[in-house]
Amino acid sequence: MTNSLRPNGQQRAPLPPAQQPARGVPGPRPPRNQSAQHATTGTTGAAAPASKPAARRDAFFDNAKYLAIVLVAMGHAWEPLKGQSRVLEAAYTVVYSFHMPAFIIISGYFSRSFDMRPDRLKRLVTGVAVPYVVFEVSYVLFKRWADGDTSLPISLLDPWYLTWFLCALFIWRLTTPLWKLVRWPLPVALVVAMLASVSPDIGDDLDLQRVLQFLPFFVLGLVMKPEHFQLARRREVRILSVPVFAAALAVGWWAVPRMNAAWFYHRDSAQELGVPWWVGPMMVFALFGCSLLLTACFYSWVPRRRTWFTGLGAGTLYGYLLHGFLVKAGTYWGWFDHARLHTPLGEIFVTLVAATVVTLLCTAPVRRVFRFAMEPSMDWAFKRDATELARERARART
Question: What does UniProt give as the signal peptide span (predicted)?
């Protein structure tokens, strides 16, 4: 960067260089008018200098996010049907044991560069807080209209349905600098989750039970490095994952009448689930281990190369939040009550429809339509960073 001369002849001190993220860690999102954009679920990539080409996205993570969001949609579509099919309920249990952990770990991994820098705080507000407010209000209004239930209040302190993840991501992201200071972040996060499982007084505000019980997966993502994902993508892990998933389905089938599926939601304490308090920490630790094992098996089968759905990985938050309206509409309006849907062929049909719908909701046209709510620029609401303004003036003079 060249220096400019002041009118009095003194030379201006050079501006500090733009902060570059560590290797493998994404930085803040570039402006919309730049060609490169690294948007993940609540996380974004770094804007490259104009003189350098943008860093290429890792296809593995986009593929993993897309496949995880498809599993989320399938699980939500199975919920109204699973009560009459033990096999479907077993599959539901297995999917629920790892689909959100797999998604949360990636969210934590791409949050490693987060600090209190103004541009990253702005992205946290526009990419997480604003969509939370918009969709929390929208879901409640939709329920009032579609179901005729006016008793559900609009409360930003009590996330309803899918919006809990945005609330959790906002809190997790804000605490990221703290976890970077802790000597043993993952054990501490596990202790926090265990304590939450025996604390019914936490209540429903901000869905803190889920925030705290899912916290270890986010912290695990924060401490992971690229080579850790490479371990899960080895050929021997991919081979071993087949019997592991087969065993998980068998255990899930056995556990259907014996285990409360609410444990997989991580939204209740042990006392609220009607078991002794000491069961809570045991279940948190056991489910954490099971979820990690199945998540590693899931990652091992995620393609590493670019595929037809790789580009959809940037729109997973759109698919996640928008598909909930269709699932709820089906519940309110009796779409899942048809007898044919409660047969094996009907369950397969519902699964395919759910996968197709959430895929379409992740596409670029849908993202363009709903970007005003999901990724608003909101430049009018924020002050311009003084250092960035000075850099722009310096570039204009060169």
Answer: none
